[in-house]
Structure prediction request, 332 residues.
Amino acid sequence: MTFGEHLEELRTCLMRATAGLAVAVLLGFFVAQPVVKLIEEPLRRALGHYYTKRSIETFDTWQPRGGTGPALPYSRAEVVDAVEKHGLTFELREVHADRLGRVLGREAAPATSAAFDPAGLVPLLLWQPLAKDPRVSITTLSAQEAFGIYVKAALLVGVVLASPWIFYQLWTFVAAGLYPHEKRWVHLFLPVSIGLFLAGVSLAFFFVFDFVLDYLLQFNEWLGLDPDPRISEWLSFVLILPIGFGLGFQLPLVMLFLERIGIFDVETYAAQWRIAVIVIFVVSAILTPADPYSLLFLAIPLCLLYFGGLAICRWLPAGEPGRRQLATKASQ
Prediction:
């Protein structure tokens, strides 16, 4: 094929992939609402763990006013049981017990001096279910933001649903520029490529998110900042990280494909593994947000996949006839 024919083939494949993505996004609109709930769950769970831990730390670090004031009305064992087993959280407040009694009893307040008495304050724990704690809620800051979230969720569903069709179109474009003996590798790689993409997406969504969120919330705690997450920012994070993992997991197939068509060989992969590891870490830093957990959770599997790709290239049939035909055509 000429260069112009390659461009025409690329245009055709991209149009087909785009059309398939559009259909999948339309289907995604019908399931976007439960998907938003599913996407919120890791963030709600991480915030719940964060404020559960904060509740126990608040109890442990509280000191009576002046060192001699009344203690908390609960034991530590009761607080841990309420927080961890019953899903409750609390806010620690202080009140004047005699004033509270008068208010509840509807008694007239006696005349008092103008001075406030801090020594008379006693601690009071205000309990509520963790699910109703406003600190665990995920906020939007504008009326139109919810609609944008709905569209992004439909887009995420569309990308996942359309991924087999998109990968098929991409491999079809690659196959158009190959010799007949090389095209059989495309038919072998397509289902494996889809499986690796979905495996990377699943790893990011069901495993990596929890570690990344725990780290980021701990960093907030270290800086003394209370998180107030927005669902739109979290959804952008959800869109980037799984797709980056899915694309990164294509590494062993790319290695095997390049080896089978004669661009690289096993000896080159084995000799340049140190450079490959450096490149993997750089690419992982680009594909993931700026936190060490997501970088390591992508870079380490990619390093393992690199050596797995090296082993596959070495143990599968080497395809020497194909490489000889390429060498013959190149010499001609």
In short: The chain has two domains: 3-39+140-331, 47-132. The longest helix spans residues 3-61. The two ends are 18 Å apart (CA to CA).
